[in-house]
Amino acid sequence: MSTTFNPQVDLSWSGSARSVRRLGDNWEPLRRLYFLDFPLLLLSVGLLTWVFPTDTMLVVSSSVGAFVGFYTLWEVVVRRRPIRFAHFFCIANTAGYGFGVLNSWLTISRGDRGLAEFFNRDAEAVSRAMAAVLISSGILYALGEIYESPIFGSNFKLNFDNRAVAFIFFGTVLIIVGYLTGTMGYMGTSQDSGGHVTVLAGLLAWLFPALFAFTCLTYLAWPKNALKSAIGFALIVQFILLVPTGRRGILYFIVMALIASRFSSFRPTWSFFKKIIYAFILVIVIFVGALTFYYLRVAGWGKHKVSLVDRISLAIDLFESGNTSKANEGFEKNLQKRTFILGYLSDLLDASLRMPTAMGKNALHEFQLVIPSAFWEDKEAFLYQEESVANTQFNFAYKDEANSLYTAGAIDFGLWGMVLYPILVCALFRLLAEFLRVNLPEMVSTIAILALLYNSLVTEAGLWVHLLAVRNAILFSAFLWICFKMPALALKHPPQKGAFLR
Predict the structure, then answer these.
(1) Is the pTM of this model over 0.85?
(2) Mean of pLDDT values over 399-418
């Protein structure tokens, strides 16, 4: 395709020379697959599903969404194609909702019942919710490919030095301190008695995904020596510390590590057989980590406020007893049912078609949630969740559901909110990433942007979670800047260009 016509928005501050653009400047031309083919496919299947909302069309639309989402992810991870926030949000929603439905449909024994009926949902409402996901994603795919310039140029490679290693070790120690002080534990970071998240808890929750990806990247780029082994050990420690935070976190962290590996000079030349072996090992690692987390969950059943140390002890006792059939069966059933996260969204969208919507009240409340407590003395009075807004607006009785950008949009503006909210948050992320790119050193801006990319890849992240990621990126980038402000020490064996230069 000719590159003479390229309407992408160039988000560069005035005065920045194109030849020295931070994070690379070699961009691929527009790809028809993403500004035309995929959008048309998603829009056409979505419209058909909306007009014919049956259980069969639910499976068809979910399959199409899962295929498009995973293909986009494969292109980013394996083929190292351009990274855009728009496409990451599309991956999160098409693969998250689509594969979730497809997995439950394939694995649950339902007899003659449809999937929606099995989950006590209306088939038409569930089908139309999946249709809305495809329609919204189709629009975002096209807008992202046309108007959002890639964050990283295809020629971008990070320059590593002693400061990168110091940051890895310091960050790993910080995570350990978080566990020792109770700031982190089972299911991630904890809150104080007033429901507030401490500064350390907020820092660790924001930093951990990017730290893990950056550690993997540094390990691949570092030459073979004792320090490389130390980096590898830190990576193993981080993975062990990751397991108690949740199964989805394990998957997302590893995906982000694979994406970050593109920023080094490391290029695997493995045979096809070796690639299969390594992929199989990776799947085993994810499975073992997820199963370990589930054992930690089972160990706490029937008990009140079980500490992480007690959970680990009880989980070990459970495993050594050999009486794990109930836990394994529960793990299997959980994998079958937990992925069906479309039900809550379908209820909200269906209600929004019949009843007045919140008209932005939910968005305003979720914005209030991310205001630091230091600036709002009685903030705890407003610490209710999205479900409370939905319950008040639509007369539901939800307690804890799968929040997302789509559910926030459906509460406020119905279908139009599902289309609009991802676009607005994507634009906000891209503007912030550009600000970080221009004003911070490459190493610091890359880590901060990796944290934003991680957030955009998570399906079950409500509007306030995305706004929190923006707030934390602004606040905690100063912490990263300080970490990398220390002087760089000369390396004993100067590396080749593209591995470490500073």
Answers:
(1) yes
(2) 96
